[in-house]
Amino acid sequence: FSFSTKYDFWLIRMDVVKQISRNYPNSLTSFDEIDYKTYYSHYKLFGTSRMECDFRLLEVCYAADAEILLPLLYYACTYQDIYKIFEMGDRLDKDCFRTLVQGKFMLEHFLTRLLASLPDELRSVSCELCKPGVFISRLQEIGVASHISRYKGSLLLLDLSTNCCSRCSKSLEHRIDDKRKEIWPKIPLCFDFLGWESLRRRNVEAF
User: What are the phi and psi torsion angles at 64 (to 5°)?
Assistant: First the structure.
């Protein structure tokens, strides 16, 4: 290859990374928005369903060693249940598949701990009037999921039952969202990568 050809290749690669990144953002708020609007059968991404696109891009980006995209693509694929992951995982490299399954279980562990902490969190944020007999119920009805969007405070409290006042409920909502923010930086670690900032630096160096 001539220098010009190599330079053109990296420009094309950088443009492709940017195009994909718009649909797989590395901020919690932006990925929440993606989750809420794109996992429907009628939604198409790059000409196919979101689920199909997630797994296809993971397969291609893993082969291309597009490291900056991989944690987000792994995370996107964990949206599916384990049966669907095994079904779709036939196309993936075995190490890629192992990392995906391992990361899904780690995320579910973090989010299960979030749910388990809610009774104590509610007691800690309750006012003096609510605190003596405060309780939270229906936790067992919340299914375990891998995507943090499922555990947004305002949405989660719609599925739970508490006997606290609206002010205490709002405080619990904020506490839940704080815990979500604490989990988001751990996503790259779930898939054997360093943190978001380290990935961004390495991506800049690569280009």
Answer: -85, 0
pLDDT at residue 1 in the model: 40
Owner of token pair 């291309």:
64
For CA atoms 75, 78, 80, 86, the dihedral sign is positive
Distance in angstroms (rounded) separating the CA atoms of residues 188 and 41:
28
**Looking at this protein, which amino acid is placed at residue 155?**
L
Residues 6+ positions from 53 with CB-CB distance below 8 Å: 45, 46
How high does pLDDT run on average in the chain? 86
- Coil, helix or strand at residue 48: strand
Distance of CA 198 to the CA centre of its chain: 18
**What DSSP designation does 137 have?**
E
pTM: 0.87
Contact (CB, 8 A) for 15 and 38: no
